[in-house]
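W.,

You were right to be curious about this one. When I first looked at the sequence I had no strong expectations either way, so I just let the prediction run and decided to look at it fresh. Below is the sequence, 317 residues in total, followed by the output.
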Amino acid sequence: MLNNFKIPLKLAIFLVFFGKCPMIAQDGTIYPLEAPKEPKAIPLKTGGVENQPAKESWFKQWGDPMARNITQATLTPFLPDTDKANGAAVIVAPGGGFRWLSLGNEGWEVAEALAKEGYAAFVLKYRLHPTPESLDDFTAWMNRPRTPEPTENSNGNKEETPVPPRQMDLSNQLEDAEAAYAMIIERAKEWGVDTKRIGMIGFSAGAGLTMHSTLNSKSMKLAFIGPIYGGMGPVEVPNNAPPMFNVIASDDFLFRGQFGIIDSWYKAGIPVEFHLYQNGGHGFGLGNPNRTSNRWFDAFVHWLDVNGFGKEVMAKQ
């Protein structure tokens, strides 16, 4: 089993520049945003973040609300109407390179869509690594130039080579995911959740957290997982790994022609469904106009139903 599945800092760097498809007709400028009210957010009480002097703050980019410097994790339920509820639950993990969270298009919107389909959805607002306190400094940090470090070749001449990515510690994020799962188990009766049908879906860095939880958690027994436009490298699959639904676009910088994670799941003999879309870029959430990736959510819900995760509703039909 892979015990130290970590996300390279390179992911965060790429997300800085390509967090949204640049062709989308929206403004990529970073704007200040007053923190929205989150009346249904439940504190997970997993602790804070070391060496984090800044308070949680929000900004808007590409038309979506983003949060950064999160030091207190929360879980926000989006429950379906009782006549639609099927008993299954989905933990939703937004992305943002573990430096911010795209809580709009990769969190709340996805959870609302799942609830409309009868699934109890829970947006995980997990702790993040620190970013500069002021928005101006954060913007400058986001837009800073990345130049390769010069190294000497065998002839003694200077050459520019890419800087090796540092590994990112995800212990806080894993603890938050485990606390979210435990809370859903504890309040399953109240929320109408079948504890044997709790899954997790994540986007970009959230897909990385979904995979990290699957490969490393000792307490989470996920029924299914949905890493959406996450890393595609091979992994060592645990014997009790859940079925996987995986989505990425061919023009996503994280794809790079890799099928490692799909091959790993397939060779382990665990059910896997993979959708490689012609286009969509990165960070498309539920979808962007005129992209083939726009129908992925419908395929995901169909996959859940066919595999029996929506069985209570299906039994009523």
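Here's what jumped out at me. Confidence is low (pLDDT under 50) at residues 1-25, 148-165, 313-317. And, maybe more interesting for your project: The chain has one domain: 30-134+169-307.

Coffee later to discuss?

I.
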